[in-house]
Amino acid sequence: MHNAATLAVSLLALAVSAVTAWRQFRHTRTAKAFSAVLEVYLRDVRNKEYQRDQDYVVDRLVVEHSPGGGIAGLPEQARHAVWNVAFLYESIGMMYALEALDRRIALGVFNYRTVQVWGVLEPFVLKERERREGPFLHYFQRLYDDAIAVDVEELYRKSGPRIRGRRVPWISRLRLGRS
């Protein structure tokens, strides 16, 4: 009887230790993800040059340039803007694919611009892949593929900001190709 009680207490202690370790692991992972997002926001997204480049890519790139030469075929200023923007999303996509960035953050926080920017850059990226005869910006594309597949409203309902009695208005427009 004494051995059974000792075993039960030991198993209980082991279970409590395992739960505590799991919670600590999750907390550390969340803190790292938050730190990565904060760094991206403070260093890159809030940077005036980055904002100018992203506005250029979204609003003027396809008006001023054909994707026929890929990214390498763009004039220097346009190419710089594309690299600056594309590599930010490639980095976010890489952190997401390697599970260093939580799915809720990657697909919730960055969803709108990921879909918008990829929509503009896709023909340039595809031409660049042809030119290089190899992979290019695949993490960005994976992030985009997952961004359009996720139900952002559901993602927000489960873990994000609460939107009372209304849907997230930009989601439907982006998925239907309207701005």
Give a verbal description of the structure.
The protein is mainly α and 179 residues long. Helices cover 77% and strands 0% of the residues. The mean pLDDT is 81.
Estimate the helix proportion, in percent. Answer: over 70%
User: Separation of termini?
Assistant: 72 Å
Q: Over the alpha carbons, how many angstroms does the gyration radius reach?
A: 22 Å
The residue-averaged pLDDT reads: 81
Largest sheet: none
Low-confidence stretches: none
Q: State the total count of DSSP E strands.
A: 0
Query: What is the string of SSEs from the N terminus onward?
Result: HHHHHHHHH
Summarize the structure.
This protein is mainly α and 179 residues long.
Question: Can you lay out the helices and strands and say which pair or pack?
Answer:
Blueprint: H1 2-45, H2 48-59, H3 61-64, H4 76-97, H5 103-109, H6 111-132, H7 138-149, H8 152-159, H9 169-175
Helix pairs in contact: 2-4, 4-6, 4-7, 6-7
Offer a few descriptive terms.
77% helix; 179 residues; mainly alpha; single chain
